[in-house]
UniProtKB/TrEMBL annotation:
The lineage of its organism: Bacteria, Katanobacteria. This is Glyoxalase/bleomycin resistance protein/dioxygenase. Gene3D superfamilies: 2,3-Dihydroxybiphenyl 1,2-Dioxygenase, domain 1 (3.10.180.10). Residues 3-114 form the VOC domain. It comes from the Bacteria. InterPro entries: Anthracycline_SecMetBiosynth (IPR052164), Glyas_Bleomycin-R_OHBP_Dase (IPR029068), Glyas_Fos-R_dOase_dom (IPR004360), VOC_core (IPR037523). GO terms for molecular function: dioxygenase activity. PANTHER family: GB|AAF24581.1, GLYOXALASE-RELATED. Keywords: Dioxygenase, Oxidoreductase. Transmembrane segments: none annotated. Pfam families: Glyoxalase.
Amino acid sequence: MEIKGHTIIFATKDNDEEMGKFYKEILGCTQDENGLWDLGGLKLGFDRHSQAAEKALEPFRCMVTLTVDDINKTVKELQTKGVKFIRMPGQEFWGGWFATFQDPDGNYLQLFQNGEPPKE
């Protein structure tokens, strides 16, 4: 199989209003005519599923990672909007920086900054 790239990730949701507000007002994403959220070229879709009736029980299993230029600045900006972080910016052994937070349904998302240490 040859994978041609990534285009859409689907996740389940419970609360349309909270999720829409979070992705639009907090993260600043736009929604297309099909209801998919644009995450810098990657599309994120939400739907309901009969086997997923509650918040994510194991949210570390699948995470959307958003690349940013200044992870510390982005964390501070999101905190002023009420976003709670599970992991504050930290450097991996190979050099990348990550911070982890949750959306209203408990799905984990990560901020990622490559290379240089984040600006203070």
